[in-house]
Specification:
Multidrug-efflux Transporter Regulator, Chain: A, Domain 2, homodimer, 3-stranded antiparallel beta sheet, DNA-binding
Chain lengths: 180, 180
DNA sequence: CACAGAAGCGACATCGACGTAGTTACTGGG
DNA sequence: CCCAGTAACTACGTCGATGTCGCTTCTGTG
């Protein structure tokens, strides 16, 4: 695993112990979504945190690295003009590709379903064979952007020691960075 | 123009004179959408008929062949999971490609806009250069499907002489043909 | 001229997705 | 033990998109 970002163990400043994972507001910052979206997506079954689900007021949802990656994929699909309904369908495909080296694949959505294509050749084959719309998202961009965001919020903040709360509330700042 | 479908002159059974075009309910049948969708899209400026707009109760909207083609593109974008909002943005690109041989192009939606790509090579270039989601729709499929639909409803109907009303109300029949 | 048919129109309803704001309750530190 | 802080929760509102239904009006035919 060439990346310097630990996937199973959170960075300093993110909870304690190996299974702590990421808290809701942190996930909002990393992914670039509002708390309301995160909550709605959890409550409607799009993505519930795999470490710890919500157990009522005062508790915390805990998301794994892969949870956050999936959320990042969903966000980029929405930014790319894909409907939430279609993104719901696509997410299942990601879960089947859990063990794969996602960074070297592309998520391809077509009329017949979603697949993880390995390399440009496979994508081109899908292009030639398909009809209707093909939606193609290279996963390398998602992984790189997420890893960069994790490193960015893990570094000590000079100006503001509440990065998760303030960053999540600043409209447009993360969206601008993610394109669309 | 190899196709046998007249673009400027409507087929027998479709109004009179060279500029008659297609009526609203006929368009619904050809494209596979409800009258409500056609009406909403006209009223909200997504696509207003280029031959004759609505002038109140009792009058008829008249759509050109290219109008219907654009509507078909929108419908296939929606079937492919693209949001209506994003389809609105993409339609402008089609209008800029009016004179082109659309059947040999692919409509490509990316974070930076929409383009009509000519040939697989250009699409592959866009794949390699881009980030985020690419949505690709070969126009040949749209043109072929529309031409086939036009020929289909122009032929004399044996069972039912109200093809536009009944076909538009049959759920799934046209959607099944268009995939997704 | 009268009338049936067809298409456009207005209006209310529903639903998904999410914004906003106040409340609840858990957790950790003093 | 008390309390501040934080995150989840509840509830109402907004908006886009579309379904449904009844009304209006134009057009063509008898």
């Amino acid at each position: 695993m060439p990346s310097s970002v630990p996937r199973a163990v959170p960075l300093p400043g993110f909870g304690a112990g190996p299974a702590a994972g990421y808290r809701g507001p942190q996930v909002c910052t990393l992914v670039g979504i509002t708390y309301r979206q995160l909550d709605y997506w959890a409550r409607t079954g799009l993505l519930t945190p795999s470490i710890t689900g919500a157990r009522g007021s005062g508790t915390q949802r805990r998301y794994s690295y892969h949870d956050v990656l999936e959320l990042k994929v969903i966000k980029q699909l929405l930014d790319g003009g894909i409907s939430l309904q279609r993104a719901r369908q696509a997410v299942d495909c990601l879960r089947q590709g859990l063990g794969a080296d996602l960074a070297s694949t592309s998520l391809v959505l077509s009329g017949s379903g979603s697949v993880l294509a390995h390399g440009d050749g496979e994508v081109v084959d899908l292009l030639r064979g398909g009809q209707g719309v093909l939606n193609i998202m290279p996963m390398s961009g998602v992984v790189d952007e997420l890893d960069a965001a994790i490193l960015s919020i893990a570094e000590p903040q000079v100006s503001d020691t509440r990065p998760s709360a303030d960053a999540a509330r600043r409209p447009g700042e993360h969206q601008a960075a993610s394109g669309g």
